[in-house]
Amino acid sequence: MLAPNDLDPIIGALNGFHANVRAADSLSAMFKSLTMYPVPNEADWVKQLRRQQPNLSRNGDLWETGKITIVPNALSPLVNYYNNFSAVAAILPEVDDGQIAAGILTQLITPIEGYVVKATQAKNTFTDWVSSARIYSEELDECVARAWRAIGASEYKIAALSERIGQIQIELSELDGVISLNSISTGSTGQAKDIFAQMATMFYSVALRGGTLPVMGVAVSFFTLGKMFYDIFSTAQKTKNKINDLKNHRLDLSFEHLSLAQTKSALQFVYQMKESLARQGNTLREIEAFWQNEQRNLMLVRTEFANSTEYKKDNPSVAQLPIALSVWHTLRGRGNDLLKGLNGATDAKAKIDFAL
Predict the structure, then answer these.
(1) Is the pLDDT of residue 84 over 80?
(2) Distance between CA atoms of residues 22 and 319, nearest Å
(3) Most confident of 75-84, 135-144, 346-355
(4) 1: in domain
(5) How big is the CA angle at 180 (ends 178 and 186), to the nearest 5 degrees?
(6) 3-class secondary structure, 308
(7) Which residue among 8, 9, 285, 315 is least packed, with the fewest CB closer than 10 Å?
(8) In this structure, is residue 101 part of a structural domain?
(9) Nearest in space to 230 (alpha carbons), one of 200, 186, 189, 269
């Protein structure tokens, strides 16, 4: 048949690509927004993190630039090929000569060769960006790790506080109405165009005599289905109470130790997105392989038509054209949905202050 017999692999790859782009959007936004505020007598590890900010911001810009070509290169072929295939499917049943039928199929060869090239380009651009993003996130990790190795006897107290903050952050991602990247990757959330990308700004600050010192800030993405994250968080009183209660768990820690606990917790958002990308793998390899396989199948059928001494209108490939057309129609719909969903606007109203 002039279409895939089993849609599950390509639909799975498209769902994974959807999750990958959402994760990359999130990681890019965090890289561009991550801010270490200046404080008196700041520790070396804070200075090291601040020196990373320009590199992180440039990496975030690189994703935004790359995404402009990655997403259409991966998805537009599904939309365009349906149009190519429809034109051929309308003519082919009327042809009773194998050489002519093979010539008609040639009209599909050129576009499908282009789609293979586009998928390869998207794969390579995405792979390069993920590699660089992984390096930058690991450099962030190493800055905090060096500070952690130097804290000595207070380590267990800082770890306990950081874990408390981290648990609240996890709770935010599990609020009723928030969708996980895992759900997106399995396609269990419905249409991509109905998923909202919601940006919440996380502030981390420490109260001192005479005022409050901001430590850092970072923008974090939450995904919702038909709801605004701002509204979801506004009614999450239990979680808000836990955030307000954090200041009662400062123990006897110094400002530097409190800010280290906050920083380690905040960077968990970065690590989680990095790990999400690692778990998904580069699904663009699967999309590339899909087009390569369809190209091979198409060329085999064309050769079969050209070499046939008794070509018949009702040969299996032609007889199954309505089924094949339905398959490509389904894939066009999925491609269109993802194109709309991945180009949607981002809301950024919510602000959450993890104050100590």
Answers:
(1) yes
(2) 40
(3) 75-84
(4) no
(5) 130
(6) coil
(7) 8
(8) yes
(9) 200
